[in-house]
Amino acid sequence: MTSTQPVGAGTLTLGGDITVNRLGYGTMQLTGPGVWGPPRDPVSAVRLLIRVIELGVNFLDTADAYGPQIVEDLIREALHPYPGDLTIATKVGLARTGPAEWGWIPLGRPEYLRQQTEMSLRRLKLERIDLLQLHRVDPTVPFEDQIGELKLLRDEGKIRHVGLSEVSVDQLHAARQIVPIASVQNLLNLTNRSASDVVDYAAAHGIAFIPYFSLATAGLDGAGSALDVIAHAHGRTPAQIALAWLLRRSPIVLPIPGTSSEAHLAQNVAAADIALSDAEFAALSAAVPLPDDRDE
Ligand SMILES: NC(=O)c1ccc[n+]([C@@H]2O[C@H](COP(=O)([O-])OP(=O)(O)OC[C@H]3O[C@@H](n4cnc5c(N)ncnc54)[C@H](OP(=O)(O)O)[C@@H]3O)[C@@H](O)[C@H]2O)c1
To answer: Most Cβ neighbours (<10 Å): which of 25, 142, 221, 260?
Structure first.
């Protein structure tokens, strides 16, 4: 498999020793409906994963919960033996009880985190997971027990780096007192910037920020809006400009847009080349007030 670098956005170093191109791919869209069960067309899903690598993407985000387990199997089937520069980040700590949205339940008991890590190692056919993310903090389990188990897994060499998902600055800070944290994955996009404080904390401490749901532009792309005008000026789609805005937000931001479409994949990778001017970045940022600016 050959790979060409996405040029525009450069690279990012995770945990001090893994360098990846600064536009990844999120694999959640590769399951059946409701992030449950196998994809309708598994052959296309495998082909898409191969295309991801061919386009130069070398950071994949997945989770045991996607399917559950379906996507990790697909990744192994499509890409093992893995290209040397590929980083696969997975997540543990969410139980699934069905295809509906309410079927995502934090489950942070240390023995479950360990079991799921072992299962991810087996499914991905890896001896060590480069980046293991705690999918959600479980409010019913002591925080230090959850992070402590990830530290143990790291000390044992089963994982290389620890990441967190959907955490506050306080939680991120507390976790760092237990084990080095390489990344944080929170919701962030043009329309929802409630994680801005986490981005700033991550940037100050050399932690990668991996935004999910990165393509959302609802309500911002009407005719004549800043997003519409800037998209036309660049000859790009609003989704591409949304990615360019994230890439411009901070050099520690690593977007992972997800898609099951090869055409969208190509557009998303091409967004890494877009250079927004200072004025364009400011106009897009001003389109939605920061959380602190909103009326309570
Ligand atoms: N940590 C967490 O709790 C968490 C939660 C959610 C997601 N994630 C991760 O984040 C990744 C991305 O999140 P996401 O899939 O929810 O949201 P997303 O990447 O913002 O959006 C995906 C949606 O946008 C469409 N799309 C993709 N590229 C497009 C384009 N160029 N133009 C127009 N539409 C496009 C996709 O449909 P098509 O398939 O038709 O392209 C899909 O419906 C996931 O794959 C997963 O790895 C993490």
So the answer is: 25
**CA 57 to centroid of ligand 1, rounded, Å:** 16
Strand spans (E) along the chain: 11-14, 18-21, 25-26, 59-61, 87-92, 94-96, 104-106, 129-134, 159-165, 181-185, 208-209
What separation in Å is there between the alpha carbon of 144 and the centre of ligand 1? Answer: 31
215 Cβ below 6 A of ligand 1: yes
Cβ 260 under 6 angstroms from ligand 1: yes
State the number of CA atoms in the 13 A half-sphere of 90 facing the CB.
34
Atom of ligand 1 nearest to the CA of 136: 3
- Does residue 69 contact residue 115 with C-beta atoms inside 8 Å? no
Distance between CA atoms of residues 189 and 107, nearest Å: 27
> Pick from 190, 114, 104: which is nearest to 154 by CA?
114
Provide mean pLDDT across the span 164-187. Answer: 98
Cβ 185 under 6 angstroms from ligand 1: yes
Closest C-alpha to ligand 1, atom 30: 264
* pLDDT tens-digit readout, 185-210: 999 999 999 999 999 999 999 999 99
Q: How far apart are CA 139 and CA 64, in angstroms?
A: 20
Query: Taking the complete model, does pTM exceed 0.70, yes or no?
Result: yes
Question: Could you tell me the pLDDT band of residue 294, with boundaries at 50, 70 and 90?
Answer: very low
